[in-house]
Amino acid sequence: MEPLAVILMIGLFILVLVFIFSTALLTPLIGKKNLLFVIALGFTVGAVGGAFFIAPVFDDIPDMARSVYMVTTTGTDVIGLNVSTELNVTDFIENTKKIDGVQSVQSNGITLKTSYISDDWKSTFLNRIPEINENITSVQIPTNDTMIIQVKNNTDPQEVINNLEKWMLYVSGGTIRYSIVRVTLNVDAPKLDKVIAQIPQGDVVITDVNGPTEKNVQALKDILPNKSNVVLFCGFLGMITGLAGLFIDSIVSVFNGIRERILKLKK
């Protein structure tokens, strides 16, 4: 939500409070016995105004704060990506390194969906796959058609996948249906949004963002009240505004009395 829209929403809620106050001022016409009417009106209209004008602003506070934190926070944010090998992963990594604000690009995890792997072949793969490429550090086969490969940093994941696919086809006749590479970007915190905007869509999915910016935003989210509490608060604020309008004469008299006493003490 744009700052102008936020100001407009708050302004409209203030007008709602003015309406409640003005209605309460009419009590000489509708009678002082209508105290419950003023309370009910103030709470109801305040709650409705809060739901329409204030609650949406609270929803956008984290995003507005994120923009401020990115400008004022120094440090490094970490972006986690899943990159489909339908994209040329090697070119993607090299191009991403050139984006302004990117400190480093690392790739050390590959998830493969394969043809069915029997339990006998599963044992063979676990033992022999680490020998296929010296950059493979570990292999997991959580299901009979899923393989998770960990590789050393700065390894070309496409080369590992190609080697593995040829080996599987030659040894067991197995194939790789599709694969996803886990890529991690270290990014200057003030340039986080600009970097994210330049990441291609479709074959690249942002899975998580961590770092000082997100920690500050999460800390803010933790202390913000939920929308229900915001609406209830606006309802009580409307009720108080109505009571202020109802008893405005008494309130003014009290303030005048206090002012007169202060003036007498000064004399």
UniProtKB/TrEMBL annotation:
Source species: Methanobacterium spitsbergense
Protein name: Uncharacterized protein
Keyword list, A-Z: Membrane, Transmembrane, Transmembrane helix
Taxonomic superkingdom: Archaea
Residue spans crossing the bilayer: 6-26, 35-58, 230-258
